[in-house]
Amino acid sequence: MNQVVEPSTFDPTVVDPVSQTFSQRHRRALLLCASLSTLLGLGVFASYWWNLGRYLEETDDAYVRADWVAVSPRVAGYVAQVLVEDNQAVKAGDLLVCIDGRDFTERRNSAQAQLQQAQAAANAQQATLQTLDARMSEQQQRIAQAQAALHSSEAESRRAQLDYVRYRDLVAQHVATAQRLEAASADRARAQSTVVAGRAQVARQQAQLQVLQALRRQAQARTLEQQARIDEAQANLALARNALKDTEIRAPFDGIVGQRKVRRQQYVIAGLPLLAVVPVEQAYVIANYKETQLQHMLPGQSVDIAVDSFTGQHWHGQVESIAPGSGAVFALLPPDNATGNFTKVVQRFAVKIRLAPEGDKAPRILPGMSVIATVDTRSGARQEHIHGG
């Protein structure tokens, strides 16, 4: 037997009181949790900013630098060998380029021959000087001998004079004969002439000594001249040896070879850049901070460095120094704000950051890479606070 079922009537506007109470409680709990989370996040952020964030000075105007050098020859010539390749690692003192040294070798040999010639001439002149010294010593002996003979003749002259006077008195007294007086007179004349000859001989020997002394002074002057020629030859030999040594171009320090322009059989001149040696291991960062960021920045503060080439990796460093002037001061054409209209522009100062060693596993930072440098200036802020800043 079929029964008639009446359709149920449902009014959507009618809300179940139990469901409404649960929804309100759930909504309030979610709102409370969201409020607490927001307050907690704000508190954490405020704490981070107050303790650290306000002291961090960051800039993306920063790049890796290195004090690389362009290697140039000191002498001109044809390149005989190029011993390095592009991007090759080298050590200090490694041979990079060889210039043909045949001409420089011959110049060195010529300088050595000139030095030997000058030394031989100086030795000969020294022998001449020694000979003159010996002759002067002999001449002094001759002078002494002549003076002794003169003294003897003078003594004989005095004796002959006394004999003459004695016989003259005896003849006047008719004790001696006139013939004996004549003999005494002749002896006196001979003695006097002997004295004159002795004096002339002494003067002659002394004049000869003066000639030898003049010759010795000339020889001594020539010796000094020969010594000057030796010094000049030694200097020329040193220059020739240096030029020969400079045909071997070596690495000034450890680094990587770059910009290799030199090729074998190329003619190079002094000062022409051949290649560059970049000391990658001594790289540092130059960060250009705004002048408003330098208030608490001091050398020695720690720096966090993020390199654009290596996402997610960070390096550490320290502030080494701050430039003594802004980039505009050292520009080729510095601005002159005293002319025309004036617009204030915040200036930037270069800050040098020394990288801390990161070990062999860390990627190598190359000069020219862009980085983001963040300096922790808390030490500078505390120091200013201690001094009442």
Automatic annotation (TrEMBL):
**Which residue ranges does UniProt annotate as crossing the membrane?**
29-50
Q: SUPFAM superfamilies, per this entry?
A: HlyD-like secretion proteins
Q: Which Pfam families match?
A: BSH_RND
| Signal peptide, first to last residue | none
Which keywords does UniProt give here? Coiled coil, Membrane, Transmembrane, Transmembrane helix
Residues in domain Multidrug resistance protein MdtA-like barrel-sandwich hybrid?
A: 69-278
Q: Which GO terms describe its cellular component?
A: extrinsic component of membrane; macrolide transmembrane transporter complex
Query: Highest taxon of the source?
Result: Bacteria
- Whether Coiled coil counts among this entry's keywords is yes
Q: Which GO terms describe its biological process?
A: xenobiotic detoxification by transmembrane export across the plasma membrane
Give the coiled coil ranges.
108-163, 202-250
Homology family? Belongs to the membrane fusion protein (MFP) (TC 8.A.1) family.
**What protein name applies here?**
HlyD family efflux transporter periplasmic adaptor subunit
Q: Supply the source organism's classification.
A: Bacteria, Pseudomonadati, Pseudomonadota, Gammaproteobacteria, Pseudomonadales
